[in-house]
Amino acid sequence: MQQARVAESSKGSVSDRLLARMRGDILSLALIPGRVISERDLEAIYGASRTPVRQALLQLANEGLVIRAGRGYAVASIDPQELVETFEYREIVEAAAVRLACERASEVDLDAIQATIDRGLSDPSPETWFEIGADVHVMIASLSGNGFLRDAVQDIVIRIARARWLLVSTEAGQKEAHREHSEIVSLIRTRQADEAEEAIRRHGRNVRDQIMRAVGEGRRQLGAQGIVVKGSLNSR
């Protein structure tokens, strides 16, 4: 995933690398929703000093992935109502982005996206499909040529990432995702704006419905702390 690779890069500052690691652990549920985390705990877990830990926590709070809990922080719970609202927002943003993409996308860019989509055919691992699903949507938004739309989709991808990890990867689900992504790219390539908009709306609703079912099942796994009703306070 472009914004949240779990692997630590050798590039960038210490703060950037720490942020990427912490974000990745939250998105992959290695840091469980609802878990209280102190600066001292994080220093020990990641072998980092206090300043980069604090900087990472501030950024993760801006992204909605951690919240203040007393004098410390807690990993934000997965909020079903917030997910519903996020998908409503995503549908509006992606509909606008795909229409602009039909006007502005180049064949080279479309070929690159299709290559990303096809990568899953040779690697059925859940990690690969998770990354592809996120990357493809940001890449399509980038085709709009509008940085605000691209950044909005990137933010949305982060906010729904943990819920997407709850999905069970199946061969049927992978085939459906490949078909729907390929259809969207094909419609952009042929400049069919109305059809491309409808296809990306339909795809988003399908993913939303799958995620909401998975969240319902995930409540049994993560408990009331991990998945909460909007407006409730989670603490340990």
TrEMBL record:
Residues 12-78 form the HTH gntR-type domain. One of its GO terms (molecular function) is DNA binding. Keywords: DNA-binding, Transcription, Transcription regulation. The keyword DNA-binding applies. This is DNA-binding GntR family transcriptional regulator.
